[in-house]
Amino acid sequence: MLQRGLFCAAAAVMVGAIGAALLQLAVMILSFSSPVAITLITLVAVVLLNSLRRRIRAAKHRFAPRKPEKSA
Fold first, then answer.
1. Distance between CA 68 and CA 53 in Å, rounded?
2. Up-side HSE of residue 44: CA atoms within 13 Å toward CB?
3. Alpha-carbon gap, residue 19 to 48, rounded angstroms
4. What phi, psi does 30 have (nearest 5°)?
5. Long-range contacts, stretch 8-11, CB < 8 angstroms, 24+ apart
6. Which residue from 2, 19, 53, 71 has the highest number of Cβ atoms inside 10 Å of its Cβ?
7. In this predicted model, what pLDDT tens digit does every residue of 7-47 receive, in sequence order?
8. pLDDT confidence of residue 1
9. Do residues 44 and 22 lie in contact, with contact meaning Cβ atoms separated by under 8 Å?
10. Torsions phi, psi of 64, nearest 5?
11. CA 8/CA 65 separation, integer angstroms
12. Three-state SS annotation for the chain
């Protein structure tokens, strides 16, 4: 349980850092206005987090211990 919490915290920090870097890039280099850049980066973060969440769930499901089947 603690490991999952630490992983989620690390993933949130990583996504935040990448988002901040992308925001700087979009505003400075691509000349987007700040609200447009924030909207785009929020959408990118949502897509990346959903992809990460699906992969974690698939791995968790794949490596979960199997429950013994009940015999009737």
1. 27
2. 15
3. 11
4. -85, -5
5. 11/49, 11/52
6. 19
7. 878 888 887 888 788 778 777 877 777 787 778 777 877 88
8. 67
9. yes
10. -70, 145
11. 22
12. CHHHHHHHHHHHHHHHHHHHHHHHHHHHCCCCCHHHHHHHHHHHHHHHHHHHHHHHHHHHHHHCCCCCCCCC
CA distance linking residue 48 with residue 50, whole number of Å:
5
CA distances from 9 to 33, 36, 49, 56 (A): 30, 27, 13, 14
Distance of CA 64 to the CA centre of its chain: 21
Nearest to 17 by CA among 45, 37, 43, 40: 45
Average pLDDT over every residue of 47-69 = 74
Residue 5 CB neighbours (<10 A):
9
Say yes or no to pLDDT of 72 above 80: no
